[in-house]
Every structure is written in C-alpha cells, then in structure tokens.
Amino acid sequence: MSSQFEQLGNKVLLRRPLNVVGAGNMRIGDASTVGKGSTLSAWKTTGLAMKGLIIGHDTHIGEYAHITCAHHIVIGNHVLTGRWITITDNAHGEYTAAMLECPPIDRPITSKGAVIIGDKVWLGDKVTILSGVTIGDQAIVGANAVVTSDVPSRAIVAGNPARIIKVLED
Question: Between 157 and which of 47, 102, 106, 162 could a Cys-Cys bridge form, CB atoms 3.0 to 4.6 Å apart?
Fold first, then answer.
C-alpha cells in the first residue's frame, strides 16, 4: 500500500482494516498513525482543483475516522483526534430548491474551500469539520462538535454549531 501514496513518511502506522481511495493524492508525515476502520479518500472530481490530503508528522487519527477530500485538506503536525471524526471539504451540490429535485448521489460535488487544521490541535470524539474551515494552532474541539466556521488559535470550542468557550492566553 505504501507505494500507492504520493508520500508516506517513516514509521507511519496505518491500522487495518483501512479504506483508502486516491492514495496518489495523499501525503502522510513521519511517525503518524491512522486508526483501524478509518476511511481516507482524496479523489479528483470535475470542477475542483485537487491539491490533496496532507497529514503532518506525529499526527494521530483515531479509529473509524472519515476524511474525504475533493479539493484540499491539511492536518498539521502533532494533531490528536478522537474516534469517529469526520473531516470533509466537499458536499453533494448546492442547497437550492432546484438542486433538491436531483437525487443527492447525482448532484455535482461542490466545495466551500480547503480545510486547514493547524499544529498541536486536539479534536474530541465524533467531531465533524466541514469545508472552508481553518482551525488555528493549539485549538481544542470538544466531542460531538460540528465546526462550520474558523476557529482561532488556542481556542476551546464545543457545540453544534461549534462556538468559542474560551481562548487560552499565555
């Protein structure tokens, strides 16, 4: 499997079973792990510029994660996630009355932008991060949060949608 990736660092641990689609569009840094039962997908679709999925070094993705990239997702260095997280930079179509007439599977894939997760970020269990979101360095995202907008560095966020609970100062 390692030869299929655009780049796979040293001492990377990919726990099986693992579902990987589009490994040629993925880079995973040294000493990172992806938990069992996870799905990593990075596939080219019409109309979106594929920049790929990048996972930094010493980053640990929990079991049963679902990370789906049709444009660009960056997960920084020293990131820790809980189980059952979802990170996506895409959706099935726009949310308009006309689009609702089309079955979801037939709608064109769209993206509001890249997902960028900074260094030393902690994502709790069952966190969902949607397209166009940037999470700053050293942020903490509470379990079950749905992140629909940017999170500043050193912020603690929780809820659906995620809201700032506190910003940690020096």
Answer: 162
